[in-house]
Amino acid sequence: MALLPIKLYTAPTPNGFKISIFLEVLGLKYDSQIFDISKGETKQNWFVELNPNGRIPVIVDPNVKGEGKGEGEGEGKGEGEGEGEGKGEGDNGGLVLSQTGAILQYLADTYDKEHKYSYPFGSIEYYKTLEYLIFQVSENGPIQGQANHFVVFAKEKVPYGINRYLTDTKRIYDVYEDILSRNKNNGSKYLVGDRYTIADFALLGWAFRLPRLNIDIHSWPLLGKWFDELTQIPAVQRGLIVPPH
Amino acid sequence: MALLPIKLYTAPTPNGFKISIFLEVLGLKYDSQIFDISKGETKQNWFVELNPNGRIPVIVDPNVKGEGKGEGEGEGKGEGEGEGEGKGEGDNGGLVLSQTGAILQYLADTYDKEHKYSYPFGSIEYYKTLEYLIFQVSENGPIQGQANHFVVFAKEKVPYGINRYLTDTKRIYDVYEDILSRNKNNGSKYLVGDRYTIADFALLGWAFRLPRLNIDIHSWPLLGKWFDELTQIPAVQRGLIVPPH
């Protein structure tokens, strides 16, 4: 039973990279549509129907049975009457999912049945993977994202913000180095156990953008090695390009 | 087979509330140890062994088979030699887990077999719940947390930060109101489907702290009602006290 391609709405951003990397690693077929965030393309009504948060990435997996449009038939923001038009390409049934943490977990659960990049549901390692995945999406991503804002994007120079978020970004990579250091004592170079998981791929999306903050991941010896090895994997390299195929 | 009580390391904070609420809702036995974050108690070596990120909440579930100490025998931060002492109460085996998103998902998967507050693994609703749970831990929590910092805790008044995070906090509650509005069209008052889930309980932990920002959740009609109904549930009320029993 051949799988239909997954639709990926994305952009060349750290959060976008996470998903294209993992789709490539899993060898899944997908069609990507790349948005220009600066033009507000993720705030179009048809896209907000797919993701009420109006942000990439979003996947639509047509291989899922069930209505699966989720809230696709709801209204847009605010009072939202009569916005049912402009349905968008994703509105063809299937599972609609946003939030990188949820997308990565869904893809691993569904398409990595041999557990090459995951652990069996219910195992200790399954939840340790989820723990570090959520550390990524709830601390590394948000804090490094705020650092990017204050260092790169803010039209006003706000030293308090620059210092606050650069300091915390570095602290978070200290924590990751600590995790790798503990695992190294067990002979592992991965965040969890004996294989790369979505915890690693999620972090990689953001680690890839550290140069923007003038931070070199090789300042952390184990993270530097981890980064170099991961980015030599051809599938990972393809995912970091986010090819519009 | 009687369950052993789960150990909960926590504090009366939004992230702490999430876990004590859900433990109470599930009717699970637990022993809580309440930390004074302002005194740096979460940065003690024995606690950092449990959670390399040095933050509450953390659970230790002794009912899980396997070594389960996770990295409990690793070193502390930095070079970390010879810090194996001070093992801490959690170091008695069992699953050690941090990050509220991971803890809530673990508790639902493990202790809500009847799916009173969750959906079966692999279902569309399971992943929609995860999507909104991760929206909470990756946007609502971090952004409202930054708003708290700039409005309440920062020693310096930084208008840029105050405005940025108050604005985004409100935008995020707009999104939640939109989600409830779409679901209302399907006859639901919940974030996902026909029951409260960890997506609701996670948001409640932070919604409870909106008064600190002088924001009234009743400014959003559906969220206001959602909040009033949830906070009338006795188990939820107990969880919001975080009783040290």
From TrEMBL, chains A, B:
Pfam families hit by this protein: GST_C (PF00043), GST_N_2 (PF13409)
Biased composition (Basic and acidic residues): 64-90
Species whose genome carries this gene: Candida oxycetoniae
Top-level taxon in the UniProt lineage: Eukaryota
PANTHER family: GLUTATHIONE S-TRANSFERASE GSTA (PTHR44051:SF8), GLUTATHIONE S-TRANSFERASE-RELATED (PTHR44051)
Signal peptide interval: none
Domain GST C-terminal: 122-245
Annotated InterPro entries: Glutathione-S-Trfase_C-like (IPR010987), Glutathione-S-Trfase_C_sf (IPR036282), Glutathione_S-Trfase (IPR040079), Glutathione_S-Trfase_N (IPR004045), GST_C (IPR004046), Thioredoxin-like_sf (IPR036249)
Similarity annotation: Belongs to the GST superfamily.
Protein name per UniProt: Glutathione S-transferase
Stretch list, region Disordered: 61-92
Residue ranges annotated for the GST N-terminal domain, each copy included: 3-115
